[in-house]
Amino acid sequence: FQCRKSERKNLDNSTAQKPRQNPMDKDQKSSLLPAKLWERIFRHLTPLQLLRARAVCRQWRDLVTGSPMLMNQFGGVLCGKGVMDQNYRPAIALPVGELQLAGFTIVGTGSWWAGYGPGLTMLALRECSMTVAVLFGVLKQTPNLEWLDLEWRKIRRCADWFLQAGFPVGKIGKLQHGQPGRCRLSANISG
Q: Quick one: how many helices (H) and strands (E) in the chain?
């Protein structure tokens, strides 16, 4: 039996009952286990195994990338004498949990930072130069940051700047600074 085009259209728009879809849609199928349980399972994997798990499916990639605990297993170092701006392309393609930048002049961040910032729990800036406004812009895109290590020769008493500026430190619980030009912000573990 074949229908003409006009009849097919009428059949498609008819009020006849359509077969019932499985009540478990794609999203429900993929989340048979809660994310926290997957996270507990994945935390026993090595970094190489985690990379392989990320490649299995989009759900696992998002789960690993969205978990600061799992991302802490990945770290990266970017060293250079170059300029970081909106057009900068990092050598490390995978978002990491810990990142150290050394020797850069940072004048702004592009779309690449939006992929790195949310997953970072530790950021170290060694002998980088940037304005405080750029630093605050970077920190606003790192909501899970627990440890910030600044080592600048040109900036003094940077912890005071954070306090005076009223910068929302989010998960960063404690400000520490020692020698001039060095400032550490770390999570307050003693609670």
A: 9, 8
